[in-house]
Structure formats: C-alpha cells, structure tokens
TrEMBL record:
Xref: Pfam families: Biotin_lipoyl
Protein name: Biotin carboxyl carrier protein of acetyl-CoA carboxylase
Record-linked PANTHER family: OXALOACETATE DECARBOXYLASE ALPHA CHAIN
Function: This protein is a component of the acetyl coenzyme A carboxylase complex; first, biotin carboxylase catalyzes the carboxylation of the carrier protein and then the transcarboxylase transfers the carboxyl group to form malonyl-CoA.
Length: 137
C-alpha cells in the first residue's frame, strides 16, 4: 500500500465520525484509529491527536499524546539534536517528535503553544496510542 493511499485513508478517517478503520489487502492489514474528539494521530503516520479542548490562557499543564502505537523518536535522525528540549517555547503545530509505525514516520505535533516542562517518554521505546509523551506548562 503506497503512502499516498494511506494519507488519503487518514484524511477520510479524520473527517468522519468513525473512531477506527481497518483495511486488509492480500496479506497486509492497515489499522487507523483516533480517540473520540481528536484527530487521527498519524498513521496514521503521524497524524497526531488533536486536543478537543480549546486553548485557554490558564496555567494548567497540557499533555502532548501519542496518536498511534509505535516507536518514539525524539531526534530527526541518529546523531542530530532533539526536536525539542525541556524549557523550550513550543509553537502550536511544531513537530516535537516522530513515531515510527509500519516503517513509516508520523510527526507528533503540539496542538497548542506553551513551554515544554517535561518529557514523559524515552526515545526508542514503544508507546501506546493516547500515551502522554510531553507536558507543556
């Protein structure tokens, strides 16, 4: 299955009321999902989960969560600096990590602006869909 077709399926899922979509072709199966009130987190390569809450000017922490199951990468490539670091100002839409699933890399993007206060997961570990990866203050 080519990446353009997967992207098209992700877009369809994001625009629909469905929470999950599975497609089997031959011996390959693709499973896309999203959490209620959120966008497709990549695969859903990297479709990152969108927060259903509007951004507010409160001092509460906001978590950036994994949109799908896969291996978390905190750097764009081996030997390169991380996408973000604790104390850094983050813009809405900024890529903070990528999740590798099915040999595809899906960006994890911040849905709101803030300051990165904590990295909650380690690079190279498997993360679950909906798992908190970062905390913004």
């Amino acid at each position: 299955m080519d990446s353009a077709r997967i992207k098209g399926l992700m877009d369809l899922l994001a625009e629909s009321d469905l929470l999950e979509l599975s497609l089997t072709e031959g011996d390959s199966t693709l499973r896309l999902f999203k959490q209620a009130g959120q966008g497709v987190a990549i695969v859903a390569p990297a479709v990152i989960a969108a927060s259903s809450k509007p951004a507010t000017a409160t001092a509460t922490a906001t978590e950036i969560k994994a949109s799908l199951y896969g291996v978390l990468h905190l750097t764009p490539a081996v030997g390169e600096p991380p996408f973000v670091s604790v104390g850094q100002a983050i813009d809405a839409g900024q890529t903070v990590a990528v999740i590798e699933a099915m040999k595809m890399f899906h960006p994890v993007k911040a849905k709101v602006a803030g300051t990165l206060t904590e990295i909650l997961a380690q690079a190279g570990v498997e993360v679950e869909a909906g798992q908190a990866l970062f905390r913004l203050g």
